[in-house]
Amino acid sequence: MDYDGGKINMSILSRENSERLFWLGRYSERVYTGLRSIIGSYAKNFSLDETNPESAVFSLARAYDNAIVLRDEIGSETFSYIQLAVYEINKAKKSLTPLIHLQKVIDNIAAFCGMADDSIEDEHARGIIKLGKRIERVDLYSRMNANVEDIRREIRRLIYRLPKTGLRYDAETLERLIMLANDDSLKRPEIVKEVEGLIKFLE
Amino acid sequence: MAIAEELYAYSGGVNELLARYGVKFGIYKNGEFHEQLFPFDIIPRIINHDEFAQLERGLKQRVFALNEFLKDIYSDGKIISDGVIAEEFIYSGTGWLAQCAGVSPPKGIYSHISGIDLVQAKNGTWYILEDNLRIPSGASYPMIARELGRKSLPPEFFEKHHVEDNRNYAELLSRTMNYVNTGGLSVILTPGRFNAAYFEHSYFAELTGAHLVTCEDLVVEDENLYFKDYSGKKEKIGAIYRRISDEYLDPVNFNSQSLIGVPHIFDIYRKGNVAIINSPGNGAADDKGIYYFVPAMIKYYLHEEPILNNAPTYLPYYEDDMKYILANFDNLVLKDVAEAGGYGVIFGNKLSSSEKEKFIAMLKAEPRRFIAQEVIDFQDIEIFEGSSQVPRKADLRAFVLMSDEPVVWKSGLTRFSRNPDSFIVNSSQGGGFKDTWIMTEEK
User: Fold this and answer.
1) Tell me, what CATH number does B352's domain have?
2) Does the pTM exceed 0.95?
3) 10 Å Cβ neighbour count for B147?
4) Residue contact B185–A6, C-beta within 8 A
5) Among candidate residues B411, B412, B401, the one with its CA nearest the CA of residue B172
6) Does residue B323 sit in the same domain as residue B227?
7) Which listed residue, A8, B41, B255, B291, has the most CB atoms within 10 A of its CB?
8) Number of CB atoms found within 10 A of residue B2's CB
9) Is residue B443 part of a domain?
10) Using CB atoms, which residue from B203, B229, B239 is nearest to A14?
């Protein structure tokens, strides 16, 4: 019997999938941090209005769109937490007590992140999801006027993650971002602009 | 069935997990794409050990003969020159690909993965309903249903009930891909998320470790097929399990209007530089018109009697058969040979007299386009509707995987019709599925 004719290499990733992993990381983070920040002062339209691109339900749908086509990269187990989060947010839409379901959305996204970190074998694939999360975190904290130390910490975490993915990034943008982080008065809109321009996908 | 009563309590658990893991299929309604859960019924089809052993022998024999047939018609065409099958049945079929003539696939395997549909008549006899040698789908569903059943049922339930483990499908698939691999990666080519069987493509990729790729990820260069990765690096591919049909595979060699496909992939396949699974041109053997001749093929190539029966079939192309069809129209089911997925199936007794008249005119004008079959009153299998059990029509798709030897997967996709009056079990027509249990040898 010939089991060795085919070579399976786990460390190759298509351009399309690298972008999907990146956006899966970003959108899942957007749902997570977005919901955690509003759960104390809940506004239904903000989290559950599908037509609003800033809503959690919209971001979660985009996370799902990426996850469903990444089953082979991330695994069914990791995928399943995104699927469970979708079912919970759909329950929240119909519920008189949406917050309890939104808490489960947060729990499932947290489980997704843990599972992704623990089970995705391909270092680059795992790294790209995390990089997406880190970029989104800096972006969201800056937009949400988080305090200076939190933003600086998130920028440090992003810089640490950056070289571990094999994705190309713009060195000059990175330099400007480091300068902005060290600035005495934190210029949040400029941080958003730089962090959004950091990653360059191949055309 | 006692086992059904026992299983009922676990039905919710399995279905919850199937939803959790996104076990879905895609369907277009009014031009819009929807993902739907594939309805699962927990009552299994059970096939005992000896009965399955007989099916196994018959299925291997059939697939072996079909493979010989493909080898023959794309080379010398002896079965034609010896007068066993008239050439118009081969060359005028929609599955015949003239480009494949003279091309021999790696290790001579045409049908690597064959999905053979069977039904069991009320008297217990199994009949072959059709052969699917192009892109038979569906193995992933009983595979994952069993996997999730193992989580939802009491530990060792399947062992206690002496059920063969069916979780080796991915291993069989890897073995099939590796056996013909010409050197390089094995990949699974999907048309993408909007294909009905996308779940299956991605699940197979996950379990086999073969990369799931789309046409944009692939390129033919210096006589080889390559995968392009995100950093621009290229990796050679030795086997491609493609889940897109022949006509979209290569716009240079087949349908030039196709927007998808990998230009020149057929050219390097012809040179033996990549294995395509299943081989292009297989449609010439799973045409519903060719089905009629499979018993003759078995005798011709293997000098054996067919172990499994065809459903009694008539070809309007032959004068005697046409006479029979016209005389017994109301008792027959007519099938358009070019259609699949439950489309193009007409029950004679369901037509009004004007529809019937129109249909017969079409039949006379295009006799090659249709086959007629006796309606087999096949066995019902119980399904749960709420907590009560109701009988429904069900068929079985058995999977035969060819590598160094043909292997019949010890399970299969059992599809049932949810509509009590319907014989059509296809998922695109609203049907559901069951697990198929093959019993281990009685000790």
Assistant:
1) 3.30.1490.270
2) no
3) 15
4) yes
5) B401
6) no
7) B41
8) 6
9) no
10) B229
B270 and B333 in a single domain? The answer is: no
Number of domains in chain B: 2
Q: Does B166 lie in the same domain as B90?
A: yes
**Is the domain of B111 the same as that of B247?**
yes
The domain boundary residue, chosen from B357, B374, B391: B374
CB contact A203 to B (< 8 Å): no
Chain B positions touching A12 (Cβ under 8 A) are 185, 211, 227, 229, 233, 235
The verdict on a CB contact (< 8 Å) between A72 and B192 is: no
Is residue B124 within 8 angstroms of chain A, CB to CB?
no
pLDDT tens per residue, chain B (443 residues)? Answer: 689 999 999 999 999 999 999 999 888 888 888 888 999 999 999 999 999 999 999 999 999 999 999 999 999 999 999 999 989 889 887 889 999 999 999 999 999 999 999 999 999 999 999 999 999 999 999 999 999 999 999 989 999 999 999 999 999 999 999 999 999 999 999 999 999 999 999 999 999 999 999 999 999 999 999 999 888 889 999 999 999 999 999 999 988 888 889 999 999 999 999 999 999 999 999 988 899 999 999 999 999 999 999 999 999 989 999 999 999 999 999 998 877 666 778 899 999 999 999 999 999 998 888 999 998 888 999 999 999 999 999 999 999 999 999 999 999 999 998 887 776 666 666 789 999 999 998 75
Structure tokens that stand for B109 in this block: 């395997």
With 0-12 / 13-18 / 19 or more C-beta atoms within 10 angstroms meaning exposed / middle / buried, residue A152 is: middle
**Rg for chain B (alpha carbons), in Å?**
22
Which of the listed residues B351, B374, B397 is the one where a domain comes to its end?
Answer: B374
Contacts of B206 in chain A (CB under 8 A): 71-72, 75-76
Nearest Cα of chain A lies from the Cα of B105 at a distance, in angstroms, of: 16
Which residues of B fall within a CB distance of 8 Å from A167? 230
Same domain, B174 and B262: yes
Q: Who among A4, A7, A201 is closest to B185 (CB)? A: A7
What residues of chain B lie within 8 A of the CB of A201, using their CB? 230
User: Is the minimum CB–CB distance between A72 and chain B shorter than 8 Å?
Assistant: yes
With CB atoms and an 8 Å threshold, state whether A72 touches B211: yes
The two three-digit tokens of residue B155, written as one number: 């530990």
* Domain chopping of chain A, boundaries: 15-200
- Please indicate, yes or no, whether residues B354 and B391 belong to a single structural domain of this protein: no
The domain in which residue B354 lies consists of 312-374
SS3 content of chain B, % helix, strand, coil (to 5): 35, 25, 35
Contact: A12, B229; criterion CB under 8 Å:
yes
